[in-house]
Amino acid sequence: MELDHKAKFMIILGAARAVKCGPCLEQALVWAVENGLTSEEIGQALAVGKMVRDGSNQMLTSQAEEQLSETLQTLGVHLPEVEELSCEP
């Protein structure tokens, strides 16, 4: 089975959004428009790419927190409770 022409460009768009590659995304948008993708198709592809990126970020954040906790425990470091900081003046 081979993907149709539009599906390939939708995958390229979604992948470019997922990996946060500005130049890739710009070129993918040009190709998508040149190859007849509708605004709805472009929007769907970009939405899927964002879902992939957001899911990855969530998972990596969770893994990093777990790793930090394990490392602190292994080293015997106990962090005190700290109020949430604000950057507001």
Would you give an account of this structure?
It is a single chain. The chain is an all-alpha fold and 89 residues long. It contains 3 helices and no strands. The protein has helices at 5-18, 22-34, 39-75.
Helix-strand blueprint:
Elements: H1 5-18, H2 22-34, H3 39-75
Helix pairs in contact: 1-2, 1-3
Short description:
With 89 residues, this protein is mainly α.
Which features does this protein show?
89 residues; mainly alpha; AhpD-like; 3 helices; 72% helix
CATH class category name: Mainly Alpha
The residue-averaged pLDDT reads 90
Supply the CATH architecture: Up-down Bundle
- What percent of residues adopt helix (DSSP H or I)? over 70%
Q: Nearest-angstrom radius of gyration? A: 20 Å
Structurally, how many domains make up the residues? 1
Q: Please state the oligomeric state of the protein chains shown.
A: single chain
Number of helices: 3
Helix and strand string, N-terminal first?
HHH
Number of strands: 0
Silhouette:
elongated
C-alpha termini separation? 59 Å
Structural class assignment: mainly alpha
CATH level-four homologous superfamily name = AhpD-like
Largest sheet: none
